[in-house]
Structures are given as C-alpha cells and as structure tokens.
Design a protein that fits this description.
Structural class: mainly beta
Number of helices: 0
Radius of gyration: 14 Å
Distance between the termini: 6 Å
Strand order of the largest sheet: 3-6-9-12-13
Length: about 110
C-alpha cells in the first residue's frame, strides 16, 4: 500500500464533518515537527452532528486497519492517507470511513 504519512497536522474528519484528533504518543519519528501517527494511537471525534430520527448518534472514535508488511514506528504500523479506517459511535455502530485531507510533504511510503 502506498500513500502520504499521517501526522498531527493532517486534517481528518468523520463522514459528517466532525473533527478527528489523535491522542498520539510521542514517537521518535516526526513530520513537520509532529509525531507520525501509528496504528497504536487512539483517535477521537469531536463535533460530529450526525442524527438518526432526530436523536444524536455522533461519531466518537476512529479505528484504523493497517495492512501487514508496512513501515513500523516503535513496532506499530504507520498510518497513511490510504489506510482503511472506520468511524464508530460510542455504542460501536459503524458510521463510515473518515475523510483524510492529505497534504503532500515530500514523504511518500510504498
């Protein structure tokens, strides 16, 4: 799999426009001064306006599914803008994939 590395400066939203932020543990690998995101990081969603029949059902978390055999940082696979992911509600109901706005930084993984 190839794509651009995700770091703390990458814009990620849920399918409904909520902002996704990573509670990234500091790694020794940085991109634009921010830690590179890995599959070990926890991603939270804030401000998701999604409703079903008028009842709030916001996205609260994102789970990534990195493919095996990729680049590792501290033993965890790095996340790319092409890494499959799913947003979930607090009740773990799938809501769809997040939208990753990749800004090419000259670092591309294959």
């Amino acid at each position: 799999m190839s794509g651009n590395l995700i770091n703390g400066g990458t814009a990620i939203t849920c399918p409904h426009g909520g902002r996704v932020t990573a509670a990234a543990a500091p790694t020794g690998v940085r991109l634009d001064g921010r830690s590179v995101a890995t599959g070990a990081d926890v991603f939270a969603v804030g401000g998701c306006p999604h409703r079903v029949d008028g009842i709030p059902h916001p996205c609260t978390t994102v789970r990534w599914s990195p493919r095996p055999g990729g680049v590792l940082v501290d033993g965890a696979p790095v996340l790319l803008d092409t890494t499959p992911a799913q947003c979930f509600t607090a009740a773990l109901v799938p809501q769809g994939p997040p939208r990753v706005t990749a800004v090419p930084r000259g670092v591309f993984c294959r």
